[in-house]
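TL;DR need structure tokens for one chain.
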Amino acid sequence: MLFCYQSNGQDQFLQKGDSCFKVEDYPCAIQYYTKIEKDSIEFKSEKQNLEFYLKYSNSLFILGEYPNSLISYKKLKTLAIQNQNKFYEGKARSGISHSLWRMTENVKAIEEILKAIDIFEQLNDTSNLIEASNILAGIYVSIQKYGDAREIYQEMLEKAIQSNDSFNIAGNYEYLGIVDYFDGDYQSAIDNYKKSLEINKKVDNSFRISINLGNLAEPKMELEEYQEALDLLSQAIKLQEKYNYKSVLIYSYYTIGKIYTRTQSYDSGIFYYKKSLQMMDETSETRDKQEVYRLIAENYAKHGSFNKAYEYYKLHSREKDSLIVSERTKELEEIKTRYEVENKTKENEYLVFENSKKQKELTAQKELIQLQYAIGILIVLFLIISLFLAYKLYRVRQTLINANKSKDKLFGIIAHDLKGPIRNIEAMLQLLQSEQKENRKAQYFDYLTQSIQNLSALTNQLLSWTFSHKGDFNFEMQKLSIRKISDRTIELFDYQLAEKDIKVINSINDDFFVLADENALLTIFRNLISNAVKFTQKGGEIKLETEKLDNFIEIQIQDSGVGMSKNAIHKVLEGEHVISSSGTDNEKGSGLGFSIVIEFIKKLKGKIDIKSDGENGTTVILKLKKA
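>> reply
TL;DR here they are.
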């Protein structure tokens, strides 16, 4: 079954695998990469395909699965050659060489790494040139050509320092330490290992840190600093077992075994040698197998178990003989390799041609699918844009409707709130015309002057509020003193209150504050005070009181007027239009006041209630949010 890379499941596996690889959780990375590799996948691009195989191969190699890493690197090499990508070809050849070297195939390993070095020199890729050269030097170390190895390591260290490549600087200090160790210069080895460890700790490279710690233990052991060596190995093994670094565990286990042998803890030594052999079997890395067999045999001999010692000496001899035979067949292997190269080249050329043909077919299919996707996306975009424009038109229409409604309400508020003061001025002018007494005329002039000043202030306030609302009522919430709002409102009704001999008792506390819009709150108070004055008989009384609740301030406006019926209260609170009746002094009204109050109280997130027995006055109860 062919899976497209873009499918959700496959894409998820790749993302999870890459995340695990990034944090050096290689078992996790291999788990997801293997699921992808088992299926035939069409990747989004050839580069992504190559990058996938490089990460997959590197994960297998780091965990010591050398046969599998070799297979994966070879696939990467074939793909890179098909796509004429020299970088990935060089990385593949480096990986193949490293895997072969771990499996003691030194001749083939050298052949591959020399080609990789040549590629990276052509690409002028210093970082990968250093890594490839270090693999070649490692092969020289394994065949005891320490001088050649040291020369390469030193040259590559200088290149790494020049290019400020911390990864390879750390690596080359470590490799020089290995050469020092084999040359018997243990203190120099320790110094180089420590330099490498310091750099790797800064970049938090767990894999390299675990190698540094294990390597650092070996010269410490040779200097008979056994406890320090055991501590270092304990730290190294903890990291290596956590991340399952099998190839590195081989050396850590048998180094710790050596320490126990030297300290005459033979059972512990044998235990760790056998753990080392187990890792060799799991990774197919057999270079040091004969050495471990010899160490186990010596342990059994010192322990007095001569039969077991004899068995492991035989295994040691057999493994050693196989290595000698392997060395003797190197020349034949080289001849055979050269012979096979020509046939493999022809075979690869044919495979490249077939794969190129298949790739063109897949590309054509992919382009067709992409075109279908593009057309589909354009249709969806057209529909989305159409819906968006329709929605915008609907919103504009609703805004205009709301603006028109708000305009009507504002004009209603202005008419309602200005009607009373204008009527007062008319009444006083009539009184002035008919009044004969000078002292009464002076009093009327004072009332008239105050009324005109109040009317002017109210007009300016209402006009400012009107111009600031070009759509719906958008309240500007602020901390307001209820006492100041109520006092400003009562001043507007001085004349009516005097004419009707109504006493106002304002018991609102000075330190009670609410969160509200100033203009809205003034409008609410004007309407409620206006109604109280209108329906209170001459000689009556109006009381304003407040009380603090949990999150609200309760305001009560109580009059001793004619009261309201239950039906009228219900209609007012439900927002129904109420036909205004005449006041106790035949004052007229529009019926707009209470509907504005109800609407504004809702917008202020407050509550309103009205209480009356229909005969003995009315109490309006407001609850507004405490500031």
